[in-house]
Specification:
3 strands; single chain; three-stranded mixed beta sheet; alpha+beta; 6 helices; rod-shaped; 2 domains
């Protein structure tokens, strides 16, 4: 009867250990692998004492499975996953803040941004920026008395008349270049003709 008591105590200890491990286990891809190893541990905790009771040779789980090796690999994988996840979240937050800052500054200059794409390099430097803009409607509402009206006939092959001139686009490129240290050739500014 002492053997059964020791066996039950061993199972109880194994279940307590597993419960504690599952409570401190972080959520992630490696959780399912850890649960498989835990399941094998409980299974061996139940079966090994029975095998040892009826077999004269001692049976050691460490001879079959190197649990310490698996635990180290899972720990390394978990910490790597956490670092990658944190790095991605920081990058997304930085990109969102940068977009809001650029949008605010160009809005103060009289432009609305309808679309913006930013490509970041390592160390969060801007590699390329593409912006679709149009002039603020408030600026267009401030039109005063017209002194002269000029009518121009556009041939089919001529380009559309744009609200934003090439000079304004170049000034915006210079501004973004000096403020955010982006190469001018990597700054693409297009007029958003959908809202015009």
């Amino acid at each position: 009867m002492e053997w059964i008591s020791d066996w039950v105590q061993g199972i109880i200890v194994a279940v307590i250990i597993v419960t504690i491990i599952e409570m401190i286990l972080p959520n992630g891809n490696s959780k399912k692998y850890i649960k498989v190893v835990i399941g094998i541990y409980i299974l061996f905790s139940i079966i090994v004492p029975i095998i040892n009771k009826f077999n004269s040779t001692k049976f050691d789980i460490n001879e079959i499975l190197d649990l310490e090796k698996y635990a180290n690999e899972i720990s390394i994988q978990t910490s790597t996953d956490l670092e990658n996840n944190n790095e991605e979240q920081i990058k997304n937050m930085y990109e969102t803040g940068l977009k809001q800052d650029i949008k605010s500054k160009l809005n103060d200059k009289g432009y609305n941004i309808s679309n913006m794409d930013i490509e970041l390099e390592e160390e969060y430097k801007i590699k390329k920026i593409t912006i679709r803009i149009n002039k603020n409607e408030k600026e267009n509402e401030n039109i005063k008395k017209v002194d002269k009206i000029e009518i121009r006939v556009i041939k089919e092959k001529e380009e559309e008349i744009k609200n934003i001139t090439e000079k304004e686009i170049e000034e915006l490129k210079d501004y973004i270049n000096s403020t955010y240290e982006v190469k001018k050739e990597n700054i693409i500014i297009e007029e958003d003709t959908n809202d015009a």
